Amino acid sequence: MVRRALHTAECRELGPEAAGKQFGPFEDTADGRVTVFMDEELLRARHPGQVELHRLARAVRERGPAADVVLVAPKPTMVLMDEMAHVVSKVAESVSSLALAGRNRWVYELSRPLRGPVGPEGRS
Question: Residue 63: its pLDDT value, please?
């Protein structure tokens, strides 16, 4: 993925004619932003001995923006498992004639509270 992003940056730096001569059918000069979702620091931590991978990531970070090729660290997403997911899953499997093998899992993204505030009577 990182090597491909660097190749795109190199082709765009060269321009369509020079990239066509150098890379032939493998030139990549298409318009538009190329976004690589990768945290460079996390990559270094997970692959400490991979010098070539570190060099490629640094080259994309340094040369890419001029060619509209950017590294973007993905934002973490918080998800909660519904405490009754296993019950709902069992019911769904038994009811559905098209249920696939394995358990269904229901996951909710934490974009809004699952329950409202509790009132003075102890109910929401």
Answer: 93
pLDDT band of residue 88 (cuts 50, 70, 90) is low
- Euclidean distance between CA atoms 37 and 93, whole angstroms: 36
Nearest to 79 by CA among 104, 50, 105, 109: 109
Could you tell me which of 79, 69, 105, 77 has the C-alpha nearest to residue 90?
105
> Could you give the count of Cα atoms lying within 13 Å of 47 in the half-sphere of its Cβ?
11
Report residue 78 CA to chain centroid gap: 14
For residue 20, count other CB atoms closer than 10 A to its CB.
Answer: 15
Q: How many CB atoms lie within 10 A of CB 18?
A: 13
Residues 14 and 63: beta-carbon distance below 8 Å: no
